[in-house]
What we know:
The protein is an alpha/beta fold and about 625 residues long. The protein is globular, with a radius of gyration of 27 Å.
Amino acid sequence: MTKLADPAALEAWRAALAAEDGHDRPTLTVCGGTGCRVYGSERVCAALQAESARRGADLTVKVTGCHGFCERGPLVVSHPQRRMFTRVKPEDARELVSAAVDGGPVADRLLYTDPQTGARIPIETDVPFYKHQRRLVLDLNGALDPLRLDDYVAAGGYAALAKALATMTPEDVIATVKASGLRGRGGAGFPTGVKWETCRRQPGDVKYVICNADEGDPGAYMDRSIMEGNPHRVLEGMLIGAYAIGARQGFVYIRNEYPLAVKHLRAAIAQAEARGLLGENILGTGFSFRVSVRLGSGAFVCGEETALMASIEGRVGEPRPRPPYPVEAGLWGKPTNINNVKSWAAVPLIIANGAEWYAALGTPTSKGTLIFSVVGKINNTGLVEVPLGISLRRLIFDIGGGIPNGKQFKAAQIGGPSGGCIPAEHLDTPIDYESLAALGAIVGSGGLVVADEDTCMVDFARYFMQFTQEESCGKCVPCRVGTKAMLATLERICAGQGEPGDVDYLFELGETIKRSSLCGLGQTAPNPVLSTLRHFRAEYDAHILHKTCPARVCKGLITYRILPEKCTGCMVCLRNCAVGAIHGAKQQVHSIDPAVCTRCGLCQSLCKFDAVVVN
Length: 615
């Protein structure tokens, strides 16, 4: 493969690819993200290819990255019409190929049905989940084959790099990123351009850039999907950043639990090197840069930048005190700039379109777009990219389709396990760094877990505290001991053993951990507890003072009983009770012994007559 000698050669290649492209040729794109693969998208793709071959059809079947609408996968989109088909199975291949080639009808079962209106929506861009988004970083995820550099170049890939190398000084690049208002998308929200400028000003010839792809929040997969679907955009961002900072070596730190992302990233690096977009004398400009992949073992604390660098160096992934900050003394003691996957992926867009274009999105202090992984009690789960400043209401109801089964929205945990809960009364709060901080939450890396009326907020806080406690590296006492004490207190409360002073104790302990922990993990670990105490104090009081769980979730505070008027004596619950807590003869009313019952809930789930209820 011929290396590109200069920016003109890159543009000539792009023009040749455009000339070869049959824009009107029917194409079926199949979501190849991890989520859809779990649902069988690889088998769907194989069936579509086989059916196309059988018919001798002039049809392209392309595997792409994650389309984002994970709840409806496997997803297939027919181009150029942009018709979207959901929950596709291999046996649907004949129908879909016929529709793509001949324009035939498609059964309603494959079309998206709006959960709020019941309407069938055939066109992808008309589906509310996509219609209300502003997809910049994710714009090509459903269009590119992530294993083909040609696809990325044809879509404008590496043009921003060529522009930066050929027409901009490193200072120009930094000034553009600063003017764009881009802030770190890994959680801290620090101005990206300021960080780059500080690193560039450090003395010495050896500097490093790192892409932090160690995504570990429960339910979060934004970074994974970007790396799986468009790894070249991340590499292009790193190249531009390295040029601006003066680095010749970069690292992508990615968890080993993301095998597809690792595969696609390594393929992209090899392709870029073969074309001269990575390596020595890139595009004939004299700039040289290489990227290496380092695999993490899944430690959540390695998302913290100093722990991440320790892991790259081969040491235990533990944080160290700051200052000095990584931009001053980072990897192997050299100035090091670390940004998140989403931050790096935004950089080519900023350089290509200009700082004013990017800064026009969002709010005066929170610019651009943010990607959320929306999960939990919501109809449309998946990846959502929206301008910062959008309200939580629009995100959950206009894009997310609202709450399933007619339930009421109760709260949203935003910012990952170290974020905070936003209650229903603040649904119209804009999602930006400052507004969320005022409510005791953080933007974080973009995780968003929705809770409905059946969620116990004490148990909800306990779940996230259990995660952060387990992931504590144990290096500092406040985090190691403090989170354990908070978790033990929450477990007592959920077990019905709460004491009147527990709320004050949790407040005091949480604030102490925030002030005195060594790294960001410990400093934000109490947030879910503190925010639920702030917004849902009544639920804590009910657990502690009245020994009841209003949501009827906490096993230590509920009992199961059988309604005599509804019990038929079918014996299904009795036969399936593992501890023998249910008594009764056939066709006679049964009863549950609360002293023996373990509150597993199996009897209630098995009863066809709604005879088992919770008190």
